[in-house]
């Protein structure tokens, strides 16, 4: 039963000294200067610190600044809590993983000590929320909700997030769960209310004063009416306004009225503006956006440098990233760089469209310079890459060409690589082809990847019998376990043993049937190429 407890729940006394919280800010952004939102901040702070709400949800359209507002809120009230933890659901981690993460943070329990069921872990989490005053923030809840259905329904396998929200909202404790989302989970509708310990706030756009203040350093020119029309046209959406301001500055000499008079410049809304902004980027800037989209989490400059195959100086890379930050297309955080969700969605779509066209015409550029998935990424990131990039691409190709037609296109591209590719030239096309064939469920026996770079191929648990990897470069690929790059792979004549020569100066031998490693030969003084 839902326990009605609004004013009776114990909270921190005003006379108590401020707490020194233990904090884990996860992927919370560095917000810098904060504009407006004082009314919303005041309401949220009152709900949490005075009314002791158990669940508070902030919802609204993408780009409205939900994550920024909650970050500012958490910074203001952090001293009211013993523990503060922030987690993003952008890459759809399982409920079990989130619960394990939070419980270990609150109680220092080891993973092996945690119960096996989701329900038991929720109970254990609530025990911690009851015994300590904790602030738990889950960002991007919409990532675990279904697309193409009515709002509030969970993706298959993520329904237990609903149990978590419901039980945290119904059960007495002294903590608060804060959610940000583009759409409300179904549980909120039945739990929330003006005097309930579960409440939600819809975030609308900035008003005229705050919107103009946010753009004051963009050096735009226009009458009062022009400024009013600009902010109104984009409903005060902070992200849209930042991107539009760059379009006004670069394409219309900073003149707002000229921009507003050019109806085709805004046709299609934010998506088209993002498209115009994207098309104006340098090739390197576009490459960086594609890589940030593929990686789907914070990336350092060194990470980017390792992924980009073209020769690039540290200065050029730094200037390109700085340019993207100035264009409001890239966000900075304490651990690196990433994209706002609306930008990531746009670039993901553009990437898939471009790669589809390249495969269809058998003329590859992005397909060679960028990986579809990162084989060495964390499991949940790689699964996100498969779901959001690889699967839509393969589905689109199959819808147009069928299974055999798709395989035929990939075979022709592979043949072209063997005819034209310099064996020493790095690239991702070979690995992309192999990953696509594996995802298609194709029979890859007798495929010839010899003398080719086969980067970022995910080969764990894949049967590779009669696949020719002689002198292939499998740098950054995952093959049963992580070790140096693989230069050659061969089977024994009876097919029972598999050997690989690596860049670690080793030869490794496995049983082909069960993939059990039998031995490692370490006598070589250089890379084992054959």
Shape: globular
Classify the secondary structure makeup into a structural class.
alpha/beta
Q: How helix-rich are the residues, as a percent range?
A: 40-55%
Oligomeric state, counting identical vs distinct chains? single chain
Q: How much strand?
A: 5-15%
* Largest beta-sheet characterization: 6 strands, parallel
Order of strands in the sheet with most strands: 1-3-4-5-2-6
Instruction: Give helix and strand order, one letter per element, not per position.
Output: EHEHEHHEHEHEHHHHHHHHEEHHHHEEEE
Can you tag this structure with a few keywords?
530 residues; alpha/beta; Rossmann fold; 3 domains; six-stranded parallel sheet; four-stranded antiparallel sheet; 11% strand; disordered N terminus
Task: Describe, in plain words, how this protein is organized in 3D.
The chain is 43% helix and 11% strand. A 6-stranded parallel sheet has the order 1-3-4-5-2-6, sandwiched between helices. The N terminus is likely disordered. It is globular, with a radius of gyration of 26 Å. It is an alpha/beta fold and 530 residues long. A hairpin with a 5-residue loop joins strand 9 and strand 10. It is built from 18 helices and 12 strands. The chain folds into 3 domains: 181 residues, P-loop containing nucleotide triphosphate hydrolases (Rossmann fold); 71 residues; 135 residues, no CATH class. Helix 4 runs parallel beside helix 5, helix 12 packs across helix 14 and helix 17 packs across helix 18.
